[in-house]
Amino acid sequence: MKLIDGKATAQTIREELKTEVAALKDRLGRAPGLAVVLVGEDPASQVYVRNKIKACEDTGIVSKAFRPEASVSQAELEDLVRRLNADPELDGILVQLPLPRGLDSQRILDLIDPAKDVDGFHPVSMGRLTLGLPGLRPCTPAGVMELLRRYDIPTKGKKAVVVGRSNIVGKPMALLLAQPGVDATVTLCHSRTRDLAAECRQADILVAAIGKANFITADMIKDGAVVIDVGMNRTEKGLAGDCDFHAMKDKVAAITPVPGGVGPMTIAMLMVNTLAACRRRMGLES
Ligand code: NDP
Question: Any idea of its EC number (predicted)?
Fold first, then answer.
């Protein structure tokens, strides 16, 4: 069994980015800039935001944090996004989700300038992904693709099964795996899938993005499959993935651990997207 080490891979990507960010800074006279908006005091969101700001510091990207109180009005938050859109030194805008109750996240996301949409959730970004046009891709599925590439996991003609159809993970994941050049044959499963175990057992590559600890068991995996576990579930025993890692580790060809698999890649890809957004905005990349 090959352990797919997302933590080490993310570290390698960060090192690569450091050099690229420094070179871009020399050329532009400024480093790429990322605005991070955290509304309210949600503890999990605070940890995510802290990690993202730390990743910016490590790679040389300038981060600017904006922390409106949970009582901020929809109009005030929309004004903030408009100001960030207009700031020439900001290349990326990230609004940490979920937003407090009473705020309309979709309206906020729709307002972000697609050129600065480093989370890849804007309808324009999703549309470009669907059409196979260049653009900013959602970070978690992009991180999975990067792991498959860097670990030389063959995808052409392979059967990939994605469990979970959310807009931020499952759906874009299925599109990325099916795109020309990657060429997997993709099945997208969800809570209404009739015989999930039978679908999963067909998978050469299984991506689990469900949100239920240890939900995918060893008997649902075929011998020699590659298992990518996106799940991050808090349990009494700590963080658990969606897949029963210990039961299936001797059966699979390769697997990502939780923690230390897909999670660190998500943040690394946010940095990659910020650099790419900066390059595109400055006319250095199509
Ligand atoms: P959502 O809750 O938005 O989506 C979960 C999906 O799983 C839905 O499509 C749902 O189906 C499907 N599902 C739920 N129960 C079943 C079931 N019994 N059988 C089959 N499918 C089922 O979650 P997210 O996509 O946002 O996140 C998924 C997991 O990934 C979570 O653990 C989350 O914490 C983690 N995550 C990790 C990230 C990382 O960086 N590593 C980033 C983002 C998320 P239906 O649509 O029918 O309801």
Answer: 1.5.1.5, 3.5.4.9
